[in-house]
Amino acid sequence: MYYEENSRVFNFVVGLALGAVVGAGLALLMAPQSGRRTRRRLVKAVTDATQNAGERWGELSEELKSTVAPARRRLRL
Q1: Domain chopping of the chain, boundaries
Q2: Is the distance from CB of 26 to CB of 19 less than 8 angstroms?
Q3: Max alpha carbon distance in the chain (Å)?
Q4: Contact predicate 7/15, CB 8 Å
Q5: CA–CA separation, 54 vs 60, rounded Å?
Q6: pTM, two decimal places
Q7: Going by C-beta distance under 8 Å and a sequence separation of 6 or more, which residues neighbour residue 41?
Q8: Average pLDDT of the segment spanning 18-35
Q9: 51-74 pLDDT, tens per residue?
């Protein structure tokens, strides 16, 4: 039974990833702009997303530290 549940989850994740890749490929093929312009926009989008993720990670880290610090003081760790 455990194997069947893992297999279903694995199949779902693989299907989701494959669908995303095929969808992205079709979107690039059907794009109304030139290839050069599309590549520039993709690079900018990835760069922006990477920077945003880095900022959010820093915010999450600080929030977690400020939440855990009082509990650690109470437990004297």
Answers
A1: 1-30, 33-77
A2: no
A3: 61
A4: no
A5: 10
A6: 0.43
A7: 33
A8: 84
A9: 888 888 888 888 888 888 888 888
Residues in the chain, overall count? 77
Q: How far apart are CA 70 and CA 77, in angstroms?
A: 10
- Terminal CA-CA length for the chain: 42
Q: Dihedrals φ, ψ of 30, to 5°?
A: -95, 5
Closest CA to 67 of 46, 59, 30, 38: 59
Mapping DSSP onto H, E and C, the string for 17-58 reads: HHHHHHHHHHHHHCCCCCHHHHHHHHHHHHHHHHHHHHHHHH
CA 3/CA 9 separation, integer angstroms: 10
Q: What distance in Å separates the CA atoms of residue 22 and residue 30, rounded to the nearest whole number?
A: 12
